[in-house]
Amino acid sequence: xxxxxxxxxxxxxxxxxxxxxxxxxxxxxxxxxxxxxxxxxxxxxxxxxxxxxxxxxxxxxxxxxxxxxxxxxxxxxxxxxxxxxxxxxxxxxxxxxxxxxxxxxxxxxxxxxxxxxxxxxxxxxxxxxxxxxxxxxxxxxxxxxxxxxxxxxxxxxxxxxxxxxxxxxxxxxxxxxxxxxxxxxxxxxxxxxxxxxxxxxxxxxxxxxxxxxxxxxxxxxxxxxx
Length: 226
Ligand code: ADP
Ligand code: ADP
Known about the structure:
The protein is an alpha/beta fold.
């Protein structure tokens, strides 16, 4: 369960303080899929980075299952628009990296990596290097990597933003399939309203200058959700 309470985030810039997020409060229940929707620059990434622990709010706090977030942790899997895979590691090594860092043994980490590569349909590419894969495949590796620590929370920042329309819609369906298996709590940043409607249980809308939450809307769609 994610609780962000009254978050302000002010960046110090050359032109003085810049308020990216103002008085943002947000509750996400376990297993809920919530999209954070709004125009570019409205503060979505900044608010998500507070939940991730990359950025410390100027005011307010983020709680994860009642615990204050102070830094990133393996309980939060992250997927970015730019996949940020290690180019010098193979696909499988990229996915195994998180578990290894979390202290899982080499053999177990390898087996976890295989499991998640199979889940995203990339078993055949385990020994390939990321740069040899297409953009969509690289994002699937990114998702496998984010899931490999069995995080309770999945934070996704425009993960499909750089993909062509067809790949994007395939990835959206893949993501829902995967999510229905793990039921992680998901916070998904997008500026695409159709994507938000297709994927989420709830849409939280932000507006710029300063970044405020202006609406919090349940989504009702005639599509199967198990
Ligand atoms: P979004 O994700 O909705 O596109 P961001 O959270 O990336 O928006 O940015 C919100 C605002 O904060 C923008 O005006 C952006 O330029 C500014 N901003 C983001 N990161 C920084 C930073 N590190 N330093 C200064 N300003 C920033
Ligand atoms: P988004 O795709 O969310 O809009 P951006 O492309 O705006 O992200 O920002 C990419 C990176 O640059 C982020 O790490 C953000 O914090 C940083 N950034 C954005 N705006 C500024 C700014 N005005 N000054 C410094 N860093 C910024």
